[in-house]
Amino acid sequence: MRNRSRPDYRQPVVVVDVLDSPLVNPSAGEKGAGSPYFNEPLDLVIGILDEDGDWLTYYVDSRRFRPLED
User: Fold this and answer.
1) Minimal CA–CA distance to 39: which of 63, 23, 55?
2) Using an 8 Å Cβ cutoff, are 59 and 45 in contact?
3) CA 60 to CA 8: how far, in whole Å?
4) Distance, CA of 41 to CA of 45 (rounded, Å)
5) Would strands 55-60 and 14-24 be described as parallel, antiparallel, or unpaired?
6) Residue 22's pLDDT is what?
7) CA distance 24 to 63
8) Using CA atoms in the order 22, 59, 12, 66, what is the torsion angle rounded to 10 degrees?
9) pLDDT tens-digit profile of 4-56?
10) Whole-model pTM?
């Protein structure tokens, strides 16, 4: 189930940090329970390279990811 435009579906990411205490998504406050981000626990920091080669990091819900298989 995708709820963000990045990373692309099945795009490998680098795990930068695993948070001990998840952050509650601050962008969900505007729409409340009607937002798909409402109370989403952000417990993983991931990194990706964008199309321009810039390193970007995102706070995400680890339940939306799985280990990369060979």
Assistant:
1) 23
2) yes
3) 13
4) 12
5) unpaired
6) 92
7) 14
8) 20
9) 777 887 888 999 999 999 988 665 556 666 666 667 889 999 999 988 999 99
10) 0.76
- Position 3 in a domain: no
Side-chain half-sphere CA neighbours of 41 within 13 A: 8
Q: For residues 40 and 27, what is the distance between their CA atoms, to the nearest angstrom?
A: 10
Nearest alpha-carbon partner for 65 in 28, 17, 11, 23: 11
**CA–CA distance from 4 to each of 16, 35, 36, 65 (Å)?**
18, 13, 10, 13
What strands, in cross-sheet order, belong to the sheet with 14-24?
Answer: 14-24, 41-49, 55-60
Counting the structural domains of the chain, the total is: 1
- Residue at 37 is within a domain: yes
Q: Are 19 and 29 in contact (CB under 8 A)?
A: no
Range of the domain at 60: 14-64
